User: What shape does this take?
Amino acid sequence: GGVYVSTNNGAKFTDITASAQISQFYKIAVSKQSSSKLVGGLQDNGGHAFSDNIWKNYYGADGMDTAISALNPNLYYGFIQNGGGLYISNDAGNSLSSSINAPAGVSGNWVTPLVSNSIGEIYAGYDGLYKLTGSSWILQNTSPIGSGNIELIKVDPLNDTIIYVTNESVLYKSTDKGITFVPIYNGFSEITSLEVNSLNNQIIYLTTIGNNGQVRKSVNGGLNFINISNGLPNIGKNIIVHQGNNTNNPLFLGSSLGVYYLDDLST
Assistant: This one.
């Protein structure tokens, strides 16, 4: 949306929205090669790509989760609502190269998860874990992953064969690239975000929903989790991010009141 003004009784309107920062990003993805290349999905305003220091709207509808190939910084991917279409740009968002429909008869969550692994393979979460193969989505898991749709996907940054997914309050782990999954954690509260330490993949972090939600940490690949929420107020905990390549292991927690910080030097 925006603001328009007319000086001739409504015969013509001029958009004066250009400098207003009013768009809402659902998700963003950043190139592994350059932080100057990124893509994100915006509520009601499609997928926006950033390259050459300019934002470009390269597809429409509701922009949702996005990904950039880990091998090709110019290969951008973006979902619309419910994963109903995947929109691909081969030139860093300057143009739309192709689009791919959702699997036949399948609809994802409003924000359907989308990720790239370290060799540029693309995964999405619908009623199961799907891998983009050519111009088709191929179901990977051979047995159901809970009921309903997958909500989050995280590929181990040090090992592409390890993939984590969540379905409501349950965390599942695969050690064979998504063919078989086993539940490793049930917090009885919906998981809102998931992160794997990029220096030590035995360390996993997750957050759970609501004002009474927690930040939890595992140091043994998800076998056990401890609560590390000490010092946080009772507010919504939306996302946790680990800063890679830093031996102090900085963590950033996005909450409904702002961003909180923790590292190995903190008390």
The radius of gyration is 20 Å. The CA atoms of residues 174 and 181 lie 5 Å apart. The first strand starts at residue 4 and ends at 5.
